[in-house]
Amino acid sequence: MIKIEEFLDISRVGQLLNDRLAEIEPTWSNIVVSQAKIIKQNVHHDYYNLVAAYEASYCQNGVTQQLTIYCSAHSNESRQQTMDNLKLLWAKNIPSSRFQANWPLFYEPACRAIFYIGLPGQNLFQYFQVGNRAEILDKIELTATWLARLHVMTQGSTDWPDSRQRRIGQIVPGRDEALEKIAKICPQYHSRYIRIYDIMESRENEHWPSAENLAIIHGDLHPENVVVNQEGSAIIDWADASLADPIRDIGSFSQQLIFMGMHQIKDEAYWQEARNIFEQTYCQARNEPQPVDWAERLKTYYYFTAFRTAIYFVTKSGPEPSQADGLLNEIEASLY
């Protein structure tokens, strides 16, 4: 057992890794943590949200190996589901040398933390900041192919019960919680958000796929959750993975591609081209006809992703309703 205040104590972390990995990786021995680096730290009173990286070595068959082990811990959110999601991906042999995902090691319930092997590279948003347009398009194509692989290999999955299905009203933060917060923080927006939720849910229900056409989806796909390296690409942060309509991942990434991209390269025509390349590459990688209602399903999830951002602006600490107005206006003009 390790306490949250011990996460920078490299000897204590090393002891934990040796204890927990003895059964998981029995060929590893003498794990030594040489450095601990905080990537995210928000700790006060009884609350914490922490991500740390540990440079470590271990001995395997007489050879010393190096690796980076990450830890993600949150006082209010169990990382157990993330652990289960990653284990399922690996059990299905979905990740590969070119299409990567973090390797889960273990879950530590005492501090609600997951430990996993990290991946090298930069996230896709960092490529936006550099501004190499041709390279960005190349990485977007790779992301589309990764996503198609995930959806094809898990279509009709029976590994998760119905309780692991997620529809719009259940997606974080969830309809009830979001509307409750909006009623308290920005009550003048409450009825507007109710109407949009109603329309979104109605559109989704009208086009919800049959069980054999549901797939495991990432659930929160945006450029910062795509890591690119010399071997290929990785999709990270699987906390929101669920059994759902695979087109939700397409709509989510397409909307965030433009929304986040425009903050770095102010060229709407370029980002529309990037979106088209992403969607076309995905469809080609699936190598099957598009569903007849593809466009309507994509439209629903594209604007639902914008809606989630609009929810964030009016429910976050220090709400900014003026930031939500533009998104809400766009959603209403497109769906009403």
What are its keywords?
336 residues, Phosphorylase Kinase, domain 1, Aminoglycoside 3'-phosphotransferase, Chain: A, domain 2, five-stranded antiparallel β-sheet, four-stranded mixed β-sheet
Average pLDDT taken over every residue: 94
Question: Could you tell me how far the N terminus lies from the C terminus, measured between alpha carbons in angstroms?
Answer: 54 Å
Order of helices and strands: HEEEHEEEEHHHHEEEEHHHH
* Largest pleated sheet: 5 strands, antiparallel
The unreliable regions are none
According to DSSP, the number of beta strands is 11
CATH-defined superfamily of the largest domain: Aminoglycoside phosphotransferase (APH), C-terminal lobe
Q: What's the tally of helices?
A: 10
Domains, number:
2
- Secondary-structure arrangement, i.e. CATH architecture of the largest domain: Alpha-Beta Complex
Return the structural class: alpha+beta
Quick one: overall form?
globular
